[in-house]
């Protein structure tokens, strides 16, 4: 009987762990991108895109944790849940944004079109800040780096940026 209770306890704990992992989109996207970023067998440009995703999710996570840990505010559990939901939404839309960018960029073979795609996506990322972070050296680390194809701001409202990009691509 004791062994059955222990086995059921482990089963219950593993189910809770799986459910918690399934609920956190940001953690799943982070793990997936991290695996690609550190895979030395992967193409270097694919790894760089994955590195951007890792850094963007880390940035979002850090900002979320800072808001939750802010001792000057007493956040309710509903407000904390909202911040976590925002983190997951932003991570998801950032992932979609990057995927759309790479798809559109790879779809064209003319340099003029590639430059247009980069400009549309760069501008959208910088035009829609999420936090208005004053640390420009951090949030513009990729934006100002010609070594990376993903020259986007880390401080981006990815939902608004994706909507702008889709609108401009349709024009």
Provide key terms for this protein:
171 residues; mainly alpha; globular; disordered N terminus
Structure explained in plain terms:
- This protein has helices at residues 2-23, 25-37, 44-69, 77-107, 111-127, 136-139, 158-170.
- With 171 residues, the protein is mainly α.
- The chain has one domain.
- It is globular and about 55 Å long.
Total number of distinct structural domains: 1
Alpha carbon gyration radius: 19 Å
Order of helices and strands: HHHHHHH
Poorly predicted sequence stretches spanning 5 or more consecutive residues: 1-22
How many helical stretches?
7
- In what range is the share of β-strand residues? under 5%
Main beta sheet = none
Keywords: Signal
Signal peptide: 1-20
């Amino acid at each position: 009987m004791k062994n059955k209770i222990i086995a059921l306890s482990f089963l219950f704990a593993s189910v809770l762990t799986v459910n918690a992992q399934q609920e956190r989109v940001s953690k799943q996207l982070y793990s997936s991108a991290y695996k690609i970023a550190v895979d030395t067998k992967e193409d270097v440009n694919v790894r760089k895109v994955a590195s951007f995703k890792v850094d963007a999710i880390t940035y979002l996570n850090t900002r979320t944790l800072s808001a939750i840990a802010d001792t000057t505010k007493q956040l309710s559990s509903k407000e904390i849940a909202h911040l976590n939901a925002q983190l997951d939404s932003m991570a998801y839309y950032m992932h979609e944004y990057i995927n759309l960018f790479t798809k559109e960029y790879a779809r064209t073979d003319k340099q003029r079109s590639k430059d247009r795609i980069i400009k549309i996506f760069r501008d959208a990322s910088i035009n829609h800040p999420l936090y208005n972070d004053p640390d420009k050296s951090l949030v513009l680390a990729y934006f100002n780096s010609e070594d990376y194809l993903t020259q986007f701001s880390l401080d981006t409202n990815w939902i608004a940026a994706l909507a702008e990009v889709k609108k401009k691509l349709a024009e």
